[in-house]
Amino acid sequence: MRDQPFQTLIPTMRFDVITLFPEEFLRTLNFGVVGRALARGQVQVECVNPRDFTTDAYRRVDERVYGGGPGMVMLLDPLKLALAHVRARTEVPAKLTLLSPQGATLTQAHARDLSLRPSMILLCGRYEGIDQRFIDGYVDEELSIGDYVLSGGELGAMVVIDALARLLPGVLNKSESAEQDSFSDGLLDCPHYTRPEKSADGDVPEILKCGNHAAIARWRRMQSLGATWQKRPDLLAQLTLSKSDAKLLAEFQMSFKA
Would residue 3 show up in a list of annotated catalytic residues for this protein? Predict the structure, then answer.
């Protein structure tokens, strides 16, 4: 009997998303890096609609605010039942993460920590917000993608899934791709060039064509430090630069000022 071919286990991460727009959510995710990861089974995304757990003829999931004021608030009970449904069908317990402008801001370092989890439950709020009793009793953490307000949590949840999926082993075509992304080491990425080599808009820097990998790596590091100094000095202020990095940055600054 012929031996069965060896199959490498593919690391996976599961996302259960509570959203009022499940079809649109899944359709939007199904492209690019995340789409390929979904097709290969490296990422699993399942959506649950709170409307499926309502008991009235109108499938109402929101109601007016107590105390008066504009907007509507998502009801407590449909969310409780939707969450119970998610937890009943998953084997590994997962934290419930609410996409909220009041949450901790997602950073690359935070994304890397989150990508080590086997699963997450993402709750996409809508309207004026969610009944605070649900947040107090069932939400484990709140997560924000920036200091601004969106119409709902769906776009934030997609950002989280994309940011985490690309960190999973094997999702990107080359393992070093994620390691070289902006923010991976606290710095912005260096500039990149491709063909044509010469153009009316400028030429590819000679250093990138020299074939000296050490020299190219040094140039890229200098450009990364310089870009962060120019565009995001707040990031640079949070870092303790090594002697070699400090020397490279000083060299970039002298060149820039010249």
Answer: no
Q: 14, 36, 51, 128: which is the annotated catalytic residue?
A: 128
Catalytic residue among 77, 142, 181, 245: 181
In the residue annotation, 166 being an active-site residue is answered as: yes
To the query of whether residue 52 is one of the catalytic residues in this protein, the response is no
Is 11 annotated in the active site? no
DSSP state of 96: E
Q: What is the pLDDT along the chain (258 residues), one digit of tens a residue?
A: 444 443 445 679 999 999 999 999 999 999 999 999 999 999 999 999 999 999 999 999 999 999 998 999 999 999 999 999 999 998 888 999 999 999 999 999 999 999 999 999 999 999 989 999 999 999 999 999 999 999 999 999 999 999 999 999 999 976 546 655 656 688 999 999 999 999 999 999 999 999 999 999 999 999 999 999 999 999 999 999 999 999 999 999 999 998
Q: Tell me the one-letter amino acid at 193.
A: Y
Q: How far is CA 96 from CA 80, 119, 138, 141, in A?
A: 12, 10, 7, 7
